[in-house]
């Protein structure tokens, strides 16, 4: 067989694998940085899972690119009863993927499941809900035990996702294996660590905004491999491109890039009271944790790993945010003080293990932190673990420290409460931090009031938690996307989610 014949055969094989040219134009292939955890909105924890949910699980409300709350399954809402009641009008004619109607009964069922299901990661997000009243088929009233400022922001994420009661009741705790929602695409198939396949839902309420017949999500943790697959045409889009690859992607005429400042933060979570592995100098002595923070040069870390693209941080909100507590600024690196703190704690040379998701950028960041901390007397052992597995180990307390992060929420409560609150689920408060001084301030900031009133409570929380350091905040990333130059209609949002509405291949 000649070289010409071999190339022709290879082309035919590639076309067959992709379903032919026509199919390739109607299938959107997105490369993910990790494989999500369970596809059940009540139980899910991962940011990457939220990206997938955005294509098949509509919420009561959504956000705009400017972080305004906008309608989705609810078309309008009104606060009543001195802000202890929220009346929501539901969009009519909406169906779930199983053909069942999306109505007030479904909203009541979904929210109550979030509140009562064992293992729910939504309960703490909407814990102020006392009851859900059905006014008519398309009107519900959310009754609160007290005013709750973050409620609409929480309903713009997984806590506001509404799913088919019939399907959820039939599946029980196996609902995540085949979830049934009311979004533009319906769940078709999942092969762990390989792909998630969604197919277009013909009866979607906003079907004219959908231009693909199928979306295939492919987890590819290595950033270099993810970009190479995009450049070769095996993918149409990738999320969380490495900052060091930005220049190469921008110079590639076949690609285009989109970026936006995120709501997210990256941090080191320290095990201070979970399981048995917290019983180390790092977990038991806040002087050791202060020394670790002082050993890190955030700016150098940003320059080396992220080409200086990201924002430095030391709180759950970025310094540019109106919610940032300015009285507690980013501490500069101070190796001498770090050494003195370790000596005072009786551990001038301390070894500990830091678990890290086995993705390219977190591993690079961990290696830089390892090198910096060594100068102060720390010997950090890096443990690379698959992302979803790492979350299970965190919840069990089977770790000493973890380099991870949070994808961010529109209200600061969503970036804080679940990670330091005594009543927060262990699936998010991985360190099991609980402070009797912090807890009443967390409750008070949730009641609401003006920005200034809430900021007074956030300032008190910062004054305690940033000294206790159950989390050592390091930086705030940008969301970096690269895509086929022919892909039109994508708009980046600060929450980092990929909304398929309006996206098409030109």
User: Any idea of the CATH topology of the largest domain?
Assistant: Dipeptide-binding Protein, domain 3
Number of structural domains: 3
Architecture of the largest domain, according to CATH? Roll
Strand content: 15-25%
Q: Spatial order of the strands in the main sheet?
A: 8-9-10-1-11-19-12
Task: Supply the CATH class of the largest domain.
Answer: Alpha Beta
Number of helices, where a helix is a run of at least 4 consecutive DSSP H or I residues: 17
CATH superfamily of the largest domain: Dipeptide-binding Protein, Domain 3
User: Low-confidence stretches at least 5 residues in length (pLDDT < 50)?
Assistant: 1-24
Q: Residue share in helices?
A: 25-40%
Mean pLDDT: 94
**What class, by secondary structure content?**
alpha+beta
Cα Rg: 23 Å
The outline comes out as globular
Query: Ends: how far apart?
Result: 37 Å
Number of strands: 21
Report the biggest beta sheet as strand number plus sense, adding barrel if it closes.
7 strands, mixed
Give the helix/strand layout:
Blueprint: H1 3-17, H2 20-26, E1 27-32, H3 47-56, E2 61-63, E3 69-71, E4 74-80, E5 85-90, H4 104-116, E6 129-136, E7 139-144, H5 151-155, H6 165-171, E8 185-191, E9 195-200, E10 214-219, H7 223-231, E11 237-238, H8 246-251, E12 255-261, E13 265-270, H9 281-284, H10 286-294, H11 298-306, E14 311-312, H12 335-344, E15 350-357, H13 360-374, E16 378-385, H14 387-396, E17 401-406, H15 417-420, H16 438-447, H17 451-468, E18 471-476, E19 478-484, E20 487-488, E21 504-505
Parallel strand pairs: 1-10, 1-11, 15-16, 15-17
Antiparallel strand pairs: 2-3, 4-5, 5-7, 6-7, 8-9, 9-10, 11-19, 12-19, 13-17, 13-18, 14-18, 20-21
